Description:
By secondary structure, the protein is of the alpha+beta class. It has 5 domains: about 5-105 and about 115-145, no CATH class; about 170-325, Sulfite Reductase Hemoprotein, domain 1; about 345-420, 2-Layer Sandwich (Alpha-Beta Plaits); about 430-605, Sulfite Reductase Hemoprotein, domain 1; about 610-743, Four Helix Bundle (Hemerythrin (Met), subunit A). It is built from 25 helices and 20 strands. Strand 4 and strand 5 form a beta hairpin. The termini are far apart.
Amino acid sequence: MSKTWKEELGDRITNELGEEIDIYETQMELKRQDKITNEIFGETRLRRGVYGQRYDNGQRFDGVRTQELAYQEGLTKGVNTVWDAPGMQRIKIPFGGVTANQLEVLADLAEEYSDNILHITTRQDIQLHYVHIEDTPALMRRLAASGITTREACGNSIRNVTACPLSGVCQTESFDVTPYAHALTQFLLGHPDCQDFGRKFKIAFSGCHHEACGLVAMHDFGCVAVLRDGKRGFETYVGGGLGAVPHQAKLYDEFLAEEDLLPTAQAIARVFARLGEKNNRARARVKFLVAKLGIEEFKRLIEEERKIMPEDPAWTAYLDDLTVTNEEPLVDASALNGQARPEGYGEWADTNVYKQRQDGYCVVTVALPLGDATSDQFRALADIARAHVKDTIRTTVEQNIVLRWVSESDLPEVYTALAEAGLGDPGAGTIVDVTACPGTDTCKLGIASSRGLAAELRTRLAAQSHELDAAIKHFRIKISGCFNSCGQHHVSDLGFYGISRKVGEYQVPHFQVILGGQWTENAGAYGLAIGAVPSKRIPDVVTRVTEAYLEQRQGDESFQAYVGRVGKAKVKEMLDDLTAVPAHDEDASYYTDWGDTREFTTGDMGKGECAGEIVPLIEVEMQGSEREAFEAQIHLDAGEYEEAYRKAFDAMLHAAKALVKTQYLDIPEDADQIVAEFRTRFFDTQLFWDNFAGGKFANYLFRHYEEKPNSHDRDTAHQIIEEAQLFIENAHACYGRMNVVNA
């Protein structure tokens, strides 16, 4: 009999990883026998990176079609659908470091268990889609044998620890953060103090302040390398996060000595596990705990926790061997000099090659459209790495791969090999290099097609790449399929997140346009939505905004400074005509999404009775709530935080009133009665609910109605504006699910 993967690979897997996979396989068997609940098994598989996923009529490849039908059947019957159809396997790649051998193993797994596509995520992970749960133990063992784990890739755990992909070779870093990211990963993986969180916990490292690097400002725990009198330490931040309502991380310590890094992270984990929200998942992140306690009280609790923690030799043992992650070049450095350059090399080298601080060496960025590569392309990368750079390969948060320590003289040969593999696209780190989350392709929460839009923008921008003005060349465009910001739309020059709007009897895919975000300085500023535009007009938004900036900017004024000077109201005004949606019989293309010929829908909806140009009252009222939310932004930008807060709350109240009016036309203009009627008619009845999200968004209204802030500042105003926009979006979605008759 042939050996199982467990028998075949047993001596190549560490005892700890092997035992973890054995436990997981046992849990799978107990679930088959209905001896553990869906909830318990759900957390078990998520902690090992196994997700359920959305199916879109089996379009990705024919093999999922029959399983997708079973999945849909399972949905209607309420069974545990993860058994009925393939899902997604997330694979942790700490600090993005991967070897040539691991690339080949990943390629084999994608070919054998998935759809032959490997997807790089915005957290430097790798995801395989359409993986059947029955195959996951074998897949995990093959990964473990190559030194990769899926443990805690998902679930209420410490997620993949990210770090700047240039760490160790960057020209401006304080020092290489790689060994610290590696040490913290190993220390926290499976740590008993990290097993009782209410939600996920994300960590990032950056070697310097001014670049994007690790994006520490949007993390639960972020570390920026700092040198003080020759001693290494970290400027540390806590309580950052994007998601539906983003929070800018707060400065925790200006200089956390390297020997204090691990125990401080452990203490934060212990306090988060003890005091973090457990019942309401919507508020179960560290950012909400920091906001609730205040940074000084949070810091006091961490310092008190440190005092009672038992000493652990692991806290400092790693400092004896910081060379464990050191890299060596394969090829001696030599200059390019007069070597012949192949066609296309110049444009590629201009955007995809970065000179290391080590003379004669470069980092090559392999640009992956939408973060995707095939199994054969991964094998080609492994061959290129073995020929030119050893195992100095990293994934990036912009969904690309970098090859480090390429000798300058090897660049033409590397480019030729990449181009032959279909990996020679230029434009890495430019406006062409659009980031997108999976969106409606595979994510259950996706509303509009982020990948479809990203592909369209990339195609258009790449065609114009020779004509792009230098001022917009390095713009970042980031797209999420919903408000959750998995595409990091809050920290881009131009951000978009997917929503839907009801036009007559139809649903129309739209995107909110986000302005004010900043990618550099480790995600230095978060943007806000200025208005919704039909998905099919978003390319026009990009063209119009960038052209206006080029025409109107003063000197070398940045885009963020330009928006601040002219004002968001002016930018919104220039986009107003793009918000119009023609009637279905005039132009049906508006009623489909990018990359999908079917009519757009977010679910089964009743057919309305509107036959002409009559606009229902609720749509007029909802437009008013959107106007108030935007006015709140104007007050925020003017530093009028109390007025911004009031306007944002009024916007939520207005949207709630709009919904109530569909059932109670003569409701008084009284906040108490509006909130009471909304609670009775839409919250208690769960009409406002869409899975758990509607209840979460309703609570934004209730909380601000019941608890007025003692003082007003920028953070408080910014957060309620985000919450108001999400409440309004869910009100739109609720209306879209309704058969509205005013009574």
